[in-house]
User: Fold these one by one.
Assistant:
Number 1:
Amino acid sequence: MIAENLQKILSQLPPQVTLVAVSKFHPSDAIREAWAAGQRIFAESRPQELFAKQEELKDCAGLEWHFIGHLQTNKLKMVLPYVSLVQSVDSQHLLDAIEKWAAAAGQKVSVLLEMHVALEESKQGFYEEEILELLLRATGDGAYSHIRFCGLMGMATNTDDAEQVRADFTRVRSYMDYLQDLFPELTEFKILSLGMSADFPIAVECGSTMVRIGSAIFGERG
């Protein structure tokens, strides 16, 4: 069933859109089944779960991990050595901690800045002016030299109103365009991660280059 679900979703995605399979709360056997069907990028939201699964699945060649949850600074060592992208950088405090860890490790960490657009105040993320200030620091005075800024991530308002979702996604897309024009030196600032199982078709219409899909692949969380 997982293989069939993957094929169904991939048939709806343009070739330039990357599918990230959100495997949080699903067992390693389910991830292994998706990997056997050709899926290579998986996302987790809890450090302990990511750490355990990457150990269990080390034999799966080409398997790549992303982190998409709220990341506490005291859990960086359980995440950063194992992921190719942190999609959910949602505060300067976290960004500073990642920079410090990466400098000590002699590495560069790839991140997306999570932009707050949803109507729910409980959602995490930066507002536009905060993102602008961070990127001005990064490009102007050389701050965050161990961080690779790869784009933006956003979550739409949790609603059945498709037009509200479209407005949220369009706002992130428009700001992404603005930042790319403003900071041409950020040559890797290309990823726009928008859309989940319920709203990814709208996200793709709005210009998303990466979708994060869990339940439509693996079924409801166990």
Number 2:
Amino acid sequence: MVKPKHIAIIPDGNRRWAKKQGISIPVAYDRGIDNIANVLKWCRKNRIHTLTMWGFSTENFMRDKNEVQNLFRLFDSKLSEGLKKDYRKYKVHVRFLGRISELPAQVQEKMRNAEADTAANGKYQLNLMLAYGGRNEIIDAVNQAIRKGMKKVDEKSFSSLLYTSGIQDPDLIIRTSGEMRLSGFLPWQAAYAEYYFSKKLWPDFNESEFNKALKEFARRRRKYGK
């Protein structure tokens, strides 16, 4: 079975899952973050070397202030304990991509430490998109080109200006919760990606559903316009 080399996931549905279960939103987010470790395990089992997860969008800053602050505290806690353990267990090189400077300073510091601690893990890579928006990424790339005095760009040089510089484009993008849109996720990089829309809310996304996405990917013919 043909398998993707790079999977990107929009883990949607945490708040709806909280409402459905009658629990608080922070508990749902905690469950959702823990599910990343499961996906890392499934990727290793299938020899998929690159996983990209969208953790927090620039639009998410507009949510209830207490919800956002609780999420940042959860990031802080997970970077200190849970995720750090998972990085080591699965020997994955982690990168944080987006407008990271807009996140709390303490969280930024722990992100830099995590990147440094895992830099030698070259075989598997986890990209966590935080304070990320696809249009913002393109705007930031254009402004970077202007600052560098670049008069002209092509696909290769423009790709090098994106947050994902040096990372292979995703072959498969999965979105959970039944929503059938990308919401600005990786608009440049997803040009030739295959999409799989799962009806499961993110905390309920399991290995069986992951394998369904892989089987659907293998079924499709990828011609890249040829």
Number 3:
Amino acid sequence: MEVRPLGKSALQVSSIGLGCVTFGREIDQETAFTVMDRALERGITLFDTAEAYGRGASETVIGHWLADRGTRDRIVLATKVAGSLTAAHVLESAEASLRRLQVEQVDLFQLHRFDPDAPLEETLEALNQVAERGWARAVGCSNYSAAQLSQALALQEQRGWARMVSVQPNYNLVERDIEQELLPLCAEQQIGVISYSPLGAGFLTGKYREGGSVPAGTRFDMLPSHQDIYFKPRGWQVVEGLRAHSEASGISMLHLALAWAIGQPGITSVLIGARSTKHVDQAFEAEAMGLSPEVRAALNAL
């Protein structure tokens, strides 16, 4: 596994990162501790969470793990602020996250998504204050379009504020919109790209069929809004094409989809969600397996 610089910052992150959305929501603290132990043991250093994950439960679990294991200086700790991005909320959220995580500083503090109702200048000034107060070593954003990121970077440069070092987009074999504008912008501006959902919330594992029922307890059952993203003609076309490649090669759909995402150019780190240590190991198996140029081209063509 590679260690890569995150944008222009001094942060170095692992090519596979641990997305901690499941902690306190889908798995309990004991299981989360086991997952984090395995991730760190295998070389994952980027741990990404958010105040919105389990309404703070994910951050709380990570805070207990950091205190129990004494591992703060071994990881790059990232979190996010959600909701209304007024200055007051950004600063309050940052303080609350630090309390739950039991740390004085996170490595990366991100805006979870663009807020059209809050003045961007107000949001970015507050983000700058988070950095100036020493609450975060670097700042970034998540779910921003190329236009939104470009606007933010221009304002930060004009005001001399802390600059975005990274963006966190959804990216997998179905959701590839970032290839058009966001990835080229990030390459030009030296912005790190931390992609998430390489398996499309489980859609690309092959467990779903068009017109079939949604298994109880799956991500699409717990968060039906995911169905709007993937249960559409293009999504079914991709998943059935991936199934055909899997059957022809003898390689699981899961490993093919993960290997594709981890090896895509322009991506700094790929976040994996895990409910068990098996999910951590699968990502490393996929990275070690890799894809030949021919197979990658065939999957790209889907």
Number 4:
Amino acid sequence: MHALGRTRVLALLCFLSQPLIGWAIDLQPNEIVAPAPNKNYLMLSYFSAQNTTFYNNGSVYSRSPFKSPVLDSNYTSLRATRTYAISELPAVSYMQLPYGTVTPAGSLASSPSSSGMGDLTLATAIWPYSDRETRTYFGIAAYLTAPTGSYSSQSPFNVSEHRYKSDLQLGFQKPIAGRVDGMIAVDTMWFGGNSQCGAACSRTLSTSSPVVPLTQKPLTTTQLGPIYNINQMFTIGASYFYVAGGATSINNTYQNNVVNTQRFLVSGLARTPIGRISLQYGRDMEIKNGAIQPRILAVRFLHEF
């Protein structure tokens, strides 16, 4: 496969996957804190991410059509959560369904946009250790995402990834000094295959088949940072992320596009009489392969019922 065709595939795949991968498992401040049992919550979230300059093995790639690429991703999701106990250990499960729009712009403006329902995510977490007196917590979470969303093999950009994803996450939080806690979480995501990868894959392989199979190696994310509980109402936090792995193969051809990304995220939470409001903003600091994200924004409203 010639270099331009190969790079085209790399860019499209990274554009498609980065917004979803990032927000599937990013934690808010105190999400590692074990919840009280027998509670029900609804959370409405808005996510916005922009992908721009494309990098290939650490260098900017600016040939057409990636001279000035822009891809805007906007998602609204609804999450229903139930807390409970398993053998006296705190536990929580939730179901989340997004609706989103992916809009190409800049040098990609000629490509069609995509909108519709996203992929359904189910998650369960349990805390083998939790001590509210010492504010020390260790939790384990498992995630499963099913390909329930809108997808067209004829479009290079889709709301759905058209594949199953699973993830296992470990999180630990304890006090550092005074009202400041420290958290660290590590997770690995595994990807099912997409046997219907079309416009983003087959057209660049000079094949007569309208679709070809896409597979991806596991992706590991480490996130850590301080959390400052200002008072009973306000909390702020900052997180550093290192994401590694996730190389893809198309039609059994290895793409040599290992993800190696560093980014940051700052968070603010406010607890009000009607519910909890949170705001998160971040961006990529360094990237090896794919399109850099200069803006990541999330706004959430959590209500107990």
